[in-house]
């Protein structure tokens, strides 16, 4: 979409399972200061199948661990709640965005800067894995991208 690169979704799967038709687009990470301990990753995950699928795991190199999170606001406080999985509805999509669902990259082993691409591997509940090349953007560029990323809801 626009200047954002479409992502290559590489599927690796056992021959005995049917592949879910899941693709990922607009995957991005806001650049964090070098001292940051964690970074959020955002993307839109689309599912063309007639059945819902779940993302049960995400992993990325150069981070101690990766969690699925939801940001919520409770009594005026921002909190992040770890999620056991993210559900992508049948013939629908789930948008991971600031203030909502996101992938939390925790324990930065090697700082990244704008222009870097971080490969994030998503594992679905059928065992299928999807590799998502996620680009790091500067925060001010991110602000320009935000309105564009919002408009899409079906
Ligand atoms: Cu988080």
Overview in brief:
It is built from one helix and eleven strands; from the N terminus they run βββββββββββα. With 154 residues, it is mostly beta strands.
Overall shape: globular
- Rg, alpha carbons: 15 Å
Report the structural category: mainly beta
- Can you tell me the number of structural domains? 1
Spans of at least 5 consecutive residues whose pLDDT stays below 50 are: 1-16, 147-154
> What's the CATH H-level superfamily name?
PCu(A)C copper chaperone
CATH fold label: Immunoglobulin-like
- Roughly what fraction of the amino acids lie in strands? over 45%
Bound molecules: copper (II) ion
For the record, the CATH class is Mainly Beta
User: Which CATH architecture?
Assistant: Sandwich
What is the number of helices? 1
Order of helices and strands: EEEEEEEEEEEH
User: Helical residue percent?
Assistant: under 10%
Count of distinct strands: 11
Mean pLDDT: 84
The rounded distance between the terminal residues' Cα atoms is 16 Å
The biggest sheet, with number of strands, parallel, antiparallel or mixed sense and barrel status, is: 11 strands, mixed
